[in-house]
Amino acid sequence: MIERDLVIVGGGPAGMAAAIAAHENGVEDILLLERDHCLGGILNQCIHTGFGIEYFKEVLTGPEYAHRFIEKIRSAPQIEVSLRSFVVRLEEDKRLFFIKPGVLENVKARALIMATGCREKTREMIHIAGTRPSGIFSAGLAQKLINIEGLLPGRKAVIAGSGDIGLIMARRFMLEGAEVKAVIEIQKETRGLLRNVVQCVEDFDIPVYFNHRISKIYGKERVEKISAVRVDGDFNDIPGAEIEFECDTVLISVGLIPENELIEMAGVRMDKKTNSPVSKELNRTSIPGLFVCGNSFKVYDIVDSVSRDSVIAGRLAAEYLRALR
Amino acid sequence: MNVFDTLIIGGGVIGTSIARELSRYKLRIGVVEKEEELAFGVSKSNSGIIHPGTQNAAHSLKGRLCVQGNILTRKICRELGVDFKEVGELIIAFEEKERTRLLRLKEEAEALGVPGLKIVNSAWLRENEPNLGDKAVAALYAPTAGVVSPYRLVYDLSENAKKNGAKFYTMTKVEKIAPRGACFEVYTSKGVFRTRYLINAAGLFADEISKMAGVDDFKIRPRKGEEFLLDKKREHITDHLLFPLPSKTSKGILIITTSDGNPMIGPTAEEIDDKEDLSTTDAGLKKVLAAAQRMVPSISEDDIIAYFAGLRPVAGDDFIIRHEDKVPGFINVAGIQSPGLTAAPSIALLVVDILKREGLALKRKLIFKGHRERTIHLFDIPLAKTERFIKKDASYGDIVCRCEMVSAKEARDAIRRGARTLDGIKFRTRAQAGRCHGTFCTTRLLKILSEETERPLKKITKRGPESEIIKETRTDD
Ligand SMILES: Cc1cc2nc3c(=O)[nH]c(=O)nc-3n(C[C@H](O)[C@H](O)[C@H](O)COP(=O)(O)OP(=O)(O)OC[C@H]3O[C@@H](n4cnc5c(N)ncnc54)[C@H](O)[C@@H]3O)c2cc1C
Ligand SMILES: Cc1cc2nc3c(=O)[nH]c(=O)nc-3n(C[C@H](O)[C@H](O)[C@H](O)COP(=O)(O)OP(=O)(O)OC[C@H]3O[C@@H](n4cnc5c(N)ncnc54)[C@H](O)[C@@H]3O)c2cc1C
Question: Fewest CB atoms within 10 A around its CB: which of A69, A239, B7, B140?
Fold first, then answer.
């Protein structure tokens, strides 16, 4: 077992901002663990623009935004980055285990920052009835397939959810020459940014059905059709108000859940509803010296606010380590 | 032409159990399956319970084969390195007046030879099943109930049968059967097979196969069961399988501890017409949730991470297992509804008996390799052991599935052992079976499948032809 001053789990914008801030506040021994083969987190697949308007007062793409942080990390030798390093267990005393090809390592952290991001809600979590054929993707998976892998997962899509990710994927499908039959939104209005509504659906004449939910998915091997039903203010179905769309793909974009199974394992007090730590103050948890930041602390709308708030986690960790001495 | 002594139609738990049992003998054994992989029929979508034998009519064939099957399954699981967890079941009475029904169930089960039964009272229940609703007054406890992973059982049975010489043909759909002298010619989508004995273990389609062979005296009626899986975080919600008192057509809606740890609630029981209708419904969900919450009130809709439906192949009240004297050499193993998974090994023995009676010469092989090395799953071994595996093979340290902790090595091994589709990998390894539902691992698995099977990414499917994942490739691959 090795002991380190500060371990940060997750090399997305949150983990990177926290690492840089901790370093700037005097922490000299930092280990940043990332399970992917590069830093950047979810930003790597967000090749559209709109990042950095608040934080850098510039319009950047996701990878460009990430790159600015990656450069800073690279220039700080006190920050050791370990890629393809998957943290699989966390204990109450901030001992953690991570696996990477060829090794299983065991580290004890004096201070720990968890910046593990979030995962997307699935079709199963919102209980869409019907069959379970291929062609049902979370919007994030579809984004990764198109933007990172160069693979088009469908030609005729219906999108569940009109949040930013759903809207951006609607445009992405259109730009790839695929068709978007409809965006179905159960609420009476979108949660997405105005600019995304204009640029991603209005400009492409994609119909958005508010007060509707996908009621059933059809298709034996591949998605063939979906039906949607109108709902009232309490989300109850209005009988007789069904519409059908022929499609080969359903993208699910109905919200994010903080990915916090590790801190839960360590015994951090959790809010079961939101899957985030119970906390009175930004980034703190019920375990002293264990901080959580970014999308795993709470789901943020834009990455600029993630960077801003994660800086505080880095500072808190530095203060905590100073107090230990 | 492929020539066999015995040809089995259907690669579910019944067909593969028969194949493995027959592979002890000097025989040419073939199994034909219409799907791209084995266990893609009823055997993939059930409750995974190895029933003790309770809740069967006193003189039923089902009941007798179930009690025997419960004993045999343990031995088979040991030999094949499949997890068998003896969790025990509780059939729960929620009203005083139901107590007499518990006693009757106990007597009926004892008549069938179910061991270890006892009636437990509410104090026992509160101590041993603390999450159970406080209205429970008593229960029938059957300690020998267990759980297995049904698809892994099928894969491991078939692997072992293969090792002992049986031949498996997937994507081979039987279309016509013609008697030719003392043999059958079986016409399939992959050519003609000739066999002396023909065994029909075609699950939901056993009536159609039987008709092809010239016996048209039963119909399979599908009875749908919808099931809902809960997050592994709720693993310890119950320690036993929990049953309500049974109804006429089903054992009711249960709370099941699956062999992989996720609790499961279900199944419904609904007669339908379409043998391919595996859709789940809003009504099914409501019904299952309400019934499960009646037993364990703390179960919540938010715990659900996956769901599916399975169809029980029902032909009357009991199994149909018989040689058809009208068509010598043709054996029906039909109507294998619940508890077919449990009864599979005893059904296999019964079929071997029937074959013997019908003149098949059974000569034991000098060497039958009955043991199979246990498949490695990182999720069920301690980290210290994981470390040893990673040292031996670095790709055990290359985690592909974040929710269930499955490595690239396990995924590749699954393919080398027969997986050809994403579902096939899921059933064997649990990759894609966790709370994120494959959002994280699908991309890696697509590539691994493509590399290992030397198929382009566009040809990789979820569960066979027409279920491709990718529509177009925008790079040169
Ligand atoms: C599909 C999608 C599209 C988006 N589009 C926009 C947009 O257009 N504009 C905008 O401003 N914001 C957008 N966002 C939001 C923004 O990207 C996020 O707010 C931001 O990325 C959150 O940063 P994070 O570091 O908390 O999480 P992430 O970026 O998700 O980073 C978490 C990191 O932790 C790693 N990790 C997790 N668990 C472990 C473990 N056990 N061991 C090791 N490493 C681990 C992950 O691999 C990942 O790299 C989008 C988000 C998503 C999901
Ligand atoms: C919801 C549900 C819950 C259940 N729970 C339990 C339980 O807890 N315990 C228990 O003991 N039992 C249970 N059962 C019953 C159990 O699942 C079945 O009895 C068992 O799986 C039947 O196996 P099989 O091999 O006969 O059928 P299958 O697995 O369906 O195998 C038949 C195979 O034949 C193939 N086939 C069909 N037609 C052709 C053709 N023309 N050519 C080639 N191949 C063909 C099919 O593709 C299929 O793979 C449950 C069933 C359901 C539906």
Answer: A239
Six-digit token string for B315: 């032909």
Distance from C-alpha of B468 to C-alpha of B465, rounded to nearest angstrom:
7
Q: Tell me the average pLDDT of chain A.
A: 97
For A123-148, write each residue's pLDDT tens digit: 999 999 999 999 999 999 999 999 99
Q: What is the average pLDDT across A246-250?
A: 98
Determine the residue among B471, B474, B477 to mutate to test chain A binding: the one whose Cβ has the most chain A Cβ atoms within 10 Å. Answer: B471
Q: Domain limits at B452?
A: 378-459
Q: Which pLDDT score, from 0 to 100, does residue B476 have?
A: 62
For B25-79, what is each residue's pLDDT tens digit? 999 999 999 999 999 999 999 999 999 999 998 889 999 999 999 999 999 999 9
Average pLDDT over residues A102-131: 96
Specify the pLDDT at position A169.
Answer: 97
Tally of domains within chain B: 3
B54 & B118 share domain: no
Asked if residue B180 lies in contact with residue B198, where contact means CB atoms within 8 angstroms, the answer is no
User: Do B229 and B264 meet the contact criterion of CB atoms below 8 Å apart?
Assistant: yes
Candidates A77, A82, A79, A40; CA nearest to A61 is A40
pTM here is 0.96
CATH at B416: 1.10.10.1100
* Ligand 2 and B14: CB distance under 6 A: yes
Q: How many CB atoms lie within 10 A of CB A106?
A: 13
| B42 close to B16: Cβ distance less than 8 angstroms | no
CATH class assigned to A2-119+256-324: alpha beta
Same domain, B53 and B157: yes
Place of tokens 């499961």: B264
Q: In CATH, what number does A122-252 get?
A: 3.50.50.60
Chain A nearest-CA residue for B403:
A261
pLDDT tens digits for B275-325?
Answer: 999 999 999 999 999 999 999 999 999 999 999 999 999 999 999 999 999
B168 and B64 in a common domain = yes
Q: Whose CA is nearest to atom 9 of ligand 1?
A: A302
The length of chain B, given as a count of residues: 477
CA of A118 to the centre of ligand 1 (A): 6
A73, amino acid identity: I
Q: Are residues B303 and B232 in the same domain?
A: yes
**ipTM for this model:** 0.96
Window 366-395 of B: residues touching A by CB (8 A cutoff) are: 383, 386-387, 390-391, 394-395
Domain boundary among B285, B314, B343: B314
Residue B239 shares a structural domain with residue B306: yes
